[in-house]
Design the sequence.
């Protein structure tokens, strides 16, 4: 299986439209449009999982294609790097001494 990252998506692009774009090129095992957890709005990228041979052909065929008025980028997805949780505080943290 190959994980494909699809970037530069329009906010109008739906998960169904994304799946329909990839379906003619092979079996889509998983398709996830990334959204902002607070607003539910598209973050402009998605991940599609396909078989290795099909994924290579799909990336070649769809990279730069105009979808909903925007040229999408289609490339192999990279594994997510582990990052420590971020703090919402800004500036130096101070200790209080008694």
Sequence:
């Amino acid at each position: 299986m190959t994980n494909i990252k699809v970037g530069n998506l329009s906010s109008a692009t739906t998960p169904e439209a994304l799946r329909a774009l990839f379906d003619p090129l092979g079996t889509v095992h998983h398709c996830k449009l990334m959204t902002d957890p607070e607003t539910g709005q598209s973050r402009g990228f998605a991940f599609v999982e396909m078989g290795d041979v099909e994924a290579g052909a799909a990336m070649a065929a769809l990279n730069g294609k105009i979808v909903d008025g925007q040229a999408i980028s289609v490339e192999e997805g990279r594994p997510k790097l582990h990052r420590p949780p971020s703090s919402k505080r800004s500036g130096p943290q101070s200790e209080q001494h008694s």
Remarks:
- The chain has a mean pLDDT of 88.
